User: What shape does this take?
Amino acid sequence: MERLIKSQNFAHNNKRINNTFRREVTSLTNNDTNIKKRGVQDVFLSLDALCDKLTIETSPKYGTEGWQMAQFTFAKIVSIACTFRRESSSEEIEKRLYLCIVRLLDHSMTLLHLNMAYQCLQDNGLQVKTYLKELEKESAGNILSAVCKPIKSEETKSGDEYAQTYYKFMEELLATVTESQVKDNYNSLLEYAVYCFLDATSLEEEVYVKMKDIGRKILTFVDNPFASCDIERIKYYIRKCSTLFRFGMFPLHQQVSQGSVEFTRIMMLNLGKLGQLELLYSEVFELLIAAAKCTYTSEGDNYALDLFNAAHGFFQSFKTKKRS
Assistant: This one.
C-alpha cells in the first residue's frame, strides 16, 4: 500500500480519483494472506508515506475528496495494524502510531489531524494510551509540545465540528497523561492554559469556548497552578491581563469577556496564596486600575465590578509570611 499512497496527491476535490483510489486500496487489503505476506513493515511504510503527504504545504482542504481519501487511508492502516497487534506482544505498532500523530499535530492542528489522533487514542484494538502513559518525560513531552501551541484561524474553518473534535481529543489526551508526566511538563501546559484563555480570543467563538474549557482543565491539575512559576513569568501573566482589558476592541465576543473574568479570578486567588505582594505590587495594582477603567458594558454596568473583584481576589487569599 505504501507505493499506492506515494503515487497520490491528496490535495484535490475529484470524486473519480477518490473512488478509484478506494477500490485499489480495498483490493490490496481485503485478503488476509496478502496482508500477512507484505508484513507489518508495509504498515509502517504506509503510515510514513501518508504522513509525508499530509505534512506538506499542499495538504487536503477540509471536506474535499482528497480529505476523505486521507481519512479512509488512515482508517485502513489502523485496521491492518490491529490485525498484526493481535498476534504480537510488541509495542512497535503503538510506537509508530504515536510518532505519526505527534508528527501530524506538530505540523498543524487541523481537523483531519485531530481526527486521526483521536482515533488512535480511542481504538480498542491498539494500546496507544497505555504506551503513552509509560513514556518518560522527554517522549511524553513531544505530544504535549505538539498540541500546546497557538492554533491558526485557517485550521478552524470547520467551525463547530472543529471545536467539538478539538475538545474530545484534548480531553482524552489530558485524561491519559500521568501525574508525573503532567509534573514534568507543567510549565508548558500552564503556558498553554494562559493562551487558551487570553490569546485564542480571535478564533471563532465556538472554538474559543472549547479551548477555554481545556485551559480550565489544565489549571485544575495541581492545587496551586502558579506555584512553580518564576516571579518574572507571573508578572508577565498579570501584565497580559492588564493589556487585554485596556484593548480598545475588548472583548471580541461575550465568551471572551466571561473567560477573562474567570482566568483573572483563578490566577489572582492562587497568586494571593503565594504571599509575594512586595514583589508583585506594581503589577497587581496596575491590574486593579485596568479592571476599574474597563469600558466594556455590553453585559451590564456590573461587568467592570466583576472584573475588579476578580483582580482583587489576590487580597482575598493573600497570605503574609510568618515572622521568625
Summary: The radius of gyration is 24 Å.
